[in-house]
Amino acid sequence: MQGIDEARVGAWLDANIEDAAGPYAYELIAGGRSNLTYRVTDANGLRMVLRRPPLGHVLATAHDMAREHRIISAVGRTGVPVPRCLGLCTDDAVNGAPFYVMSFVDGVVLDSQERGEGLVEQLRAAATDHLVDVLADLHAVDVDAVGLGDLAKREGYVERQVKRWTTQWENSKTRELPAIEEVARLLAVRIPAQQGVSIAHGDYRFGNVLTDVTHGRVAAVLDWELCTLGDPLADLGYIGVYWNEPGQPVRRANDPSGLPGFPGYRHLVDRYAARTGRDVSDVGYYVAFSSFRLAVISEGVYARYMKGAMGNQDFDASSMKAGTDALAESALAALKEI
Questions:
Q1: Could you say which DSSP state residue 92 is in?
Q2: Which of 198, 213, 310, 328 has its CB 3.0 to 4.6 Å from that of 139, i.e. a possible disulfide?
Q3: Exposed, middle or buried by CB within 10 Å (0-12, 13-18, 19+), for 171?
Q4: How far is residue 176's CA from residue 179's CA, in Å, rounded to a whole number?
Q5: Cα(337)–Cα(325) distance, rounded to whole angstroms?
Q6: Burial class of residue 124, CB neighbours in 10 A (0-12, 13-18, 19+)
Q7: Domain boundaries, the chain
Q8: Residues 132-171: tens digit of each pLDDT
Q9: Which of 276, 283, 177 is nearest to 238 (CA)?
C-alpha cells in the first residue's frame, strides 16, 4: 500500500492501539493533495482510520498531524461528534512521516447530489438542521476549558485572513481580474466586529462530515487540518458558498443541497442565529470572504498547473480557471447585497 510501511506500521499498531491485532489490511479512502486517509482493518475485523500527510515534499505546518490529533482529541471531550483518537506516532522512522489513528465511524460523506439522493427526502431538512446545530455546539466550546486556548491568535481573524489572501492573490495570479481586486478592496474596508472567539473549523460543510443517512444526523465531523481559533461566522459564511438554493441551478456540484427536501440557505442562517444568539446580519460578508478565499486557492492551483508543477496527473485546467472567475463574481454579488 503506497504511503504505508506495512511491517513497521503494523508493529506500531500492535504496540500502541488497544485491542488491535495484526495482520492488518489497508485501504485508501481519500488521497490527493490533502492528507491521506486509510481504512485499517485488523485480524479480528476491528476497523480504524489512519491519517498521514501527502506523499512527497510538503510543508510540515500545512500537514501537522500532531496538531490535528490535538484538536480532535480536545473536541472529542465535548458534545461535538468526532472520531475517537486512538494514537499518535511522531517518529518518522515508522512510516516516513507522522500519522495518527482514530476510530472508524459509519456514515456517508454527502459530497454531491448523487450521494445526497441516498438520504431520503423526508430526512434532508433534519440532517441540515443537525449540521447547523453541530456547528453551533462547536462554536460554543470553551477553548480554554478544552486546552485549545493557545491554538492561534484570538482576535482580528478576518482582518488577518483578508490580508493573507490578498497577498496570496498578488503572488499567484495568472492574469488581471478586476472583480477579485474589487472584492479584496471591499472586504478590507467592511470588516465586521468579531463576535467572540471560537474553534473555527475552516472547511465545514456536508462534504466534510459523515452523515448517518438512516436517522438524518451528523455522525462525525472530519477534516480538521484548517482548524484554528477565529470568528465563528466565517464557518457559517463558508457553508453559504457551497449551498445550492432549492429550484435554482446547481452552483457547486460537491454539495447535496438543492435537492427536494433541503431548505434554503436562509433557513440555516436563521437556525444558527436562534441557537447561538449571534447577530447574523453581516453573514453576506462572510459568504463573500469565503468565496474570495476559495477563488484565490483555485487560482493558485491553476498557476501551479501552468508552471508545470502538477505533473502529468489528470487535471481540468479550464474548469479551475473558470471556477476562480465564478467565485470572484459571486463574492462581489454577495458584497453588493450587504
A1: H
A2: 198
A3: exposed
A4: 9
A5: 19
A6: buried
A7: 6-103, 113-336
A8: 999 999 999 999 999 999 999 999 999 999 999 999 999 9
A9: 283
Give me the helix-helix angle, 283-306 and 178-189, nearest 10°. 140
Task: Give the Å distances, CA to CA, from 335 to 203, 266, 327, 331.
Answer: 21, 16, 12, 6
Q: Retrieve residue 27's grid coordinates.
A: 485501504
Fold of 113-336: Aminoglycoside 3'-phosphotransferase; Chain: A, domain 2 (3.90.1200)
Rounded to whole angstroms, the Cα distance separating 46 from 172 reads 45
User: Tens digits of per-residue pLDDT, 13-46?
Assistant: 999 999 999 999 999 997 655 789 999 999 999 9
Position 303 pLDDT exceeds 90:
no
Question: What cell was used for 17?
Answer: 492501539
**Which three cell numbers, joined as nine digits, stand for 178?**
478586476
Homologous superfamily of the 6-103 domain (CATH) = Phosphorylase Kinase; domain 1 (3.30.200.20)
- CB neighbours of residue 63 within 10 Å: 19
Rounded Cα distance between 290 and 233, Å, is: 11
In the numeric block, the cell 438524518 is attached to 216
Residue 12 to residue 136: CA distance in whole angstroms: 37
Helix boundaries (H) for 45-197? 65-75, 92-95, 113-116, 121-139, 157-172, 178-189
The closest of 121, 109, 125 to 206, measured between CA atoms, is: 109
- Separation CA 204–CA 181 (nearest Å): 26
User: Counting runs of H as helices and runs of E as strands, what totals does the chain give?
Assistant: 11, 9
Evaluate whether 81 touches 221 at the Cβ level (below 8 Å).
yes
Type of residue numbered 202: G
Band (pLDDT 50/70/90 cuts) for residue 244 is very high
Model pTM? 0.93
Mean pLDDT of 279-297: 95
